[in-house]
């Protein structure tokens, strides 16, 4: 009986030892090569059920779990995801500092803890190119529409920064960006939103920029919407031009009127000497034409006046109406 009992104990130990040796962690890729900014999946699979486990990087726990409850370290919480069903780990948006060896430890429900390692190699990102700002509405109406500006780019983008008229955009309840800064949203656009919007996309090795001009249009025709800056400048220039033209026209009209009503006195015959006989030379009158081409009767009357009629002595030719009355 003692011999049979000993044999049974040896067999039991052999089975337990065999089971502990059979528990393994299957690693899909022992080395992962990814570009900075991309995601890295540490895909593993235990050979049997696991009660707990952890991922360690540079001596610190990235994530650990017990049963179906997983905990991710605060440093990695925003970009690490743990799959407790098989112990795999997803690391998002990796950077150069994430490069190194990651060790996974698993404790099976029966047996001893087993470990495996996965090496992550992060390479430099490709250059950022083709950055452009695209709008969902090219003719937004003031106080009515919502516009969304998207910053699109080729290559690995690590950061995006928005500017308006070369000044950093200040976010508020009406103007805000998405978590990855890829989209800028403006609610109920108004005249203050008119301008040039630029997005700079970059990574550790390169950067590029794109921009677009946003204009805001008025829906109403009663003048409640303020015109854009370009339209205002055009109107001001138009008014100035009209003012200059109007002023010049008024000056010319005034000069012409003054020329008719008050010509230089040297251009007129102002008096006729009494007691002197002669005829009026019509060519002595200037280009105003006021006294040109007198009829022969008029010239005769003037001659008679000079022949001794004292009534016409000192007659001023500038007053044509008086001369006409005297003739009658």
Summarize the helices and strands and which ones pair or pack.
Blueprint: H1 2-22, E1 25-27, E2 31-35, E3 40-42, E4 44-46, E5 50-57, E6 60-66, E7 69-72, E8 80-83, E9 88-91, E10 100-108, E11 114-123, E12 129-135, E13 147-154, E14 159-164, E15 167-168, E16 175-177, E17 183-186, E18 195-202, E19 207-214, H2 229-261, H3 296-306, H4 320-327
Parallel strand pairs: 2-11
Antiparallel strand pairs: 1-4, 3-9, 5-6, 5-10, 6-7, 8-9, 10-11, 12-13, 13-17, 14-15, 14-18, 16-17, 18-19
Walk me through the structure.
The protein is 22% helix and 32% strand. By secondary structure, it is an alpha+beta fold. The N terminus and C terminus are likely disordered. The strands form five sheets. A six-stranded mixed sheet has the order 2-11-10-5-6-7, with no helix packed on it. The radius of gyration is 51 Å and the shape is elongated. It contains four helices and 19 strands.
């Amino acid at each position: 009986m003692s011999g049979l009992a000993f044999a049974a104990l040896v067999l039991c130990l052999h089975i337990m030892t065999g089971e502990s040796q059979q528990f393994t962690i299957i690693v899909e890729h022992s080395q992962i090569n990814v570009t900075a900014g991309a995601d890295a999946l540490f895909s593993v699979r235990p050979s049997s059920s696991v009660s707990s486990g952890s991922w360690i990087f540079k001596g610190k726990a990235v994530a650990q779990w017990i049963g179906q409850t997983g905990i991710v370290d605060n440093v990695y919480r925003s970009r690490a995801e743990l799959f407790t069903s098989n112990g795999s780990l997803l690391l998002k948006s990796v950077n150069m500092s994430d490069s190194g060896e990651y060790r996974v430890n698993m404790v099976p429900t029966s047996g001893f803890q087993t470990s495996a390692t996965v090496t992550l190699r992060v390479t430099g990102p490709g250059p950022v190119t083709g950055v452009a700002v695209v709008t969902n509405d090219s003719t937004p109406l003031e106080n009515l529409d919502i516009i969304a500006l998207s910053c699109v780019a080729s290559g690995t983008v690590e950061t995006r920064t928005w500017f308006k008229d070369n000044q950093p955009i200040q976010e508020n309840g009406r103007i805000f960006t998405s978590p990855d800064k890829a989209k800028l949203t403006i609610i109920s656009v108004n005249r203050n939103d008119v301008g040039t919007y630029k997005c700079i996309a970059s990574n550790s090795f390169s950067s590029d920029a794109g921009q677009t001009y946003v204009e805001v249009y008025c829906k109403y025709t009663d003048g409640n919407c303020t015109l854009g800056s370009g339209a205002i400048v055009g109107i001001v220039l138009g008014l100035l031009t009209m003012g200059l033209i109007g002023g010049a026209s008024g000056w010319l009209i005034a000069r012409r009127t003054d020329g008719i009503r008050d010509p230089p006195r040297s251009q007129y015959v102002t008096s006729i000497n009494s007691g002197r006989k002669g005829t009026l030379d019509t060519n002595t009158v200037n280009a105003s034409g006021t006294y040109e081409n007198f009829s022969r009767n008029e010239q005769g009357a003037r001659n008679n006046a000079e022949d001794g009629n004292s009534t016409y002595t000192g007659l001023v030719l500038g007053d044509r109406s008086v001369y006409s009355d005297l003739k009658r």
